[in-house]
């Protein structure tokens, strides 16, 4: 458990360090990626990308969170206390991870690549997708270990796709998306360690028995 906690703290420190490094001026890689997608958002492709970005980055994570809440309530109703506690704990981790965007943006005050509402670092859409992905992995660790690697792969691809859509729309720098992942992993690992969700699978099976 200690190693997960330390890893989370280090990852959070990297998130803060990256934010401090890019707030005043974008990195060269930021400028290169922004240039590659310059103007994409103005066409039909941009409109379709925005729909995909909002659905994958906002709607589906919200639906997933509601599903966890309903699942916890159903488990309580059926007397499945262990599963209900796991779902509630994972929901807490999910909620704390989601807070990294509204807390981080006014902290770093980074300007976006183009005129757009709110500040830029970290990407809220990527934070949302990564938070849901991490929550799904934690659920698998405790309730369905055999699906853990597959879910982790899907979560990684999901987060990467959302990050790509934000870059294509020109509303985020590349480092905004990297920072979002660092923030979620940092807060997620620290919170999961405190709530005793990591590493966990052996304990979970013992408790369930």
Automatic annotation (TrEMBL):
A Pfam family reported for this protein in Swiss-Prot or TrEMBL: PAP2
Keyword field: Membrane, Transmembrane, Transmembrane helix
SUPFAM superfamilies the record matches: Acid phosphatase/Vanadium-dependent haloperoxidase
Entry annotated with the keyword Cell membrane: no
Keyword Transmembrane helix: yes
InterPro entries reported for this sequence: PAP2/HPO, PAP2/HPO_sf
TM region positions: 58-77, 84-104, 124-144, 151-174, 180-198
Ranges where the Phosphatidic acid phosphatase type 2/haloperoxidase domain occurs: 85-192
Entry protein name: Phosphatase PAP2 family protein
UniProt source species: Amycolatopsis acidicola
Lineage: Bacteria, Bacillati, Actinomycetota, Actinomycetes, Pseudonocardiales
């Amino acid at each position: 458990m200690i190693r997960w906690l330390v890893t989370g703290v280090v990852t959070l420190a990297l998130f803060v360090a990256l934010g401090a490094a890019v707030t005043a001026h974008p990195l060269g890689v930021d400028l290169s990626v922004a240039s590659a997608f310059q103007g994409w958002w103005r066409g039909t492709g941009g409109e379709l990308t925005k729909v995909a970005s909002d659905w994958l980055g906002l709607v589906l994570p919200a639906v997933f969170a509601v599903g966890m809440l309903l699942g916890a309530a159903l488990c309580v109703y059926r007397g499945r206390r262990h599963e209900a506690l796991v779902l509630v704990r994972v929901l807490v981790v999910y909620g704390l991870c989601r807070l990294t965007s509204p807390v981080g943006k006014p902290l770093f005050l980074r300007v976006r690549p183009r005129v757009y509402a709110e500040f830029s670092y970290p990407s809220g859409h990527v934070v949302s997708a990564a938070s849901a992905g991490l929550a799904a992995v934690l659920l698998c660790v405790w309730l369905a270990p055999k699906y853990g690697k597959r879910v982790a792969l899907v979560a990684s691809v999901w987060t990467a796709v959302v990050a790509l859509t934000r870059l294509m729309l020109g509303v985020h720098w590349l480092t905004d998306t990297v920072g979002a992942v660092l923030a979620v992993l940092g807060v997620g690992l620290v919170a999961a360690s405190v709530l005793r969700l990591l590493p966990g699978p052996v304990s979970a099976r013992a408790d369930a028995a």
